[in-house]
């Protein structure tokens, strides 16, 4: 049986669980992460040298990096979640790469900085949040008039984006209105599979 090693509160773990729930694939999840003090053991580091989560174990196959895990699971368990041609696949995977290349830095800054008093935030915080909102505006514009990010169906794009963008929309920070992105996330979070992947 597939095992997912990682705490359920991690956005990167949640995206993997979301895919598994959507695909109806049986899996087991085990708590791993810094708060459990078990990602720097020799055993874990032999599987994942980054000491981060998630790590996926499928028989003799061990995979780390959440988007790589998503691609593997789509290839082996849920081909309906990606494109059937290389060209269609680019429409899906560009948003996975955009998440890492354009959104992630601002997301991490907001995740840390939103917990601090304004006077305690680093000088670069305002610029980081401005850039985050600019990247989110690209997402908001793209999803206007669409139900999903690619191919008119739920794909890896939506699965990868949802746990992170959901947090970005709900940070206690002033931001421009993003009605299209908010509506998309409302649709995603209403799915029983997303709830199962992110709650409890």
From TrEMBL:
Gene3D superfamilies, alphabetized: 1.20.1050.10, Glutaredoxin
Domain GST N-terminal residue range list: 1-81
Ranges for domain GST C-terminal: 85-200
PANTHER family: DISULFIDE-BOND OXIDOREDUCTASE YFCG, GLUTATHIONE S-TRANSFERASE-RELATED
Protein name per Swiss-Prot or TrEMBL: Glutathione S-transferase family protein
Source organism of the structure: Sedimentitalea todarodis
């Amino acid at each position: 049986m597939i095992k997912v090693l990682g705490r359920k509160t991690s956005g990167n773990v949640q995206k993997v669980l979301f895919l598994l729930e959507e695909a109806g694939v049986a899996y087991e999840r085990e708590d791993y992460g810094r708060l459990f003090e078990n990602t720097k053991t020799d055993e874990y580091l032999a599987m994942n040298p980054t000491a981060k989560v998630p790590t996926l174990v499928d028989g003799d196959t061990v995979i780390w990096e959440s988007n790589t895990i998503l691609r593997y699971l789509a290839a082996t368990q849920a081909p309906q979640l990606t494109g059937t041609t290389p060209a269609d696949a680019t429409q899906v995977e560009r948003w996975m790469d955009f998440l890492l290349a354009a959104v992630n830095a601002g997301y991490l800054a907001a995740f840390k900085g939103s917990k601090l008093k304004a006077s305690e935030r680093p000088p670069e915080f305002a610029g980081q949040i401005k850039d985050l909102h600019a990247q989110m505006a690209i997402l908001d514009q793209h999803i206007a008039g669409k139900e999903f990010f690619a191919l008119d169906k739920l794909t890896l794009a939506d699965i990868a984006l949802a746990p992170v963008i959901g947090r970005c929309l709900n940070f206690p920070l002033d931001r421009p209105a993003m009605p299209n992105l908010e509506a998309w996330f409302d649709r995603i979070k209403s799915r029983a599979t997303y709830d199962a992947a992110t709650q409890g």
